[in-house]
Amino acid sequence: MSTKDDALAKLRTRMAQPPKDWVDVVMVKMLKDPVYYGVLGLSVFFVLAIIALIATKLVLNQITLEEKQKTRQIKKKKKKQH
């Protein structure tokens, strides 16, 4: 229990000082309005996940198209040889 109290005391003393860098600014903003920044962070995560899924789908479609073209070329070469 004392470690939790010590951590809270350190956090309070750090928040009492003016912000030193961007991490302090973000920490203070998040502590003042955690729901807003939590929802904002979650929505950014989902948008990035959707972008990653779309990019993966496009890459896989491109790979399948290349494979189909290669098999067609191989079939054409075999037909020409016979």
Task: Describe this structure as you would to a colleague.
It is a single chain. With 82 residues, the chain is mainly alpha-helical. The protein folds into two domains: 1-32, no CATH class; 34-82. Helices cover 90% and strands 0% of the residues. It has three helices and no strands. It has helices spanning 2-16, 22-32, 34-81. α2 (22-32) packs across α3. The termini are far apart. The mean pLDDT is 88.
- Counted up, domains total 2
Number of helices: 3
Report the helical percentage: over 70%
How far apart, in Å, are the first and last alpha carbons? Answer: 83 Å
> Sheet bearing the most strands, described?
none
How would you state the average pLDDT, rounded? 88
Protein name: Small integral membrane protein 15
Transmembrane segments: 35-60
Keywords: Membrane, Transmembrane, Transmembrane helix
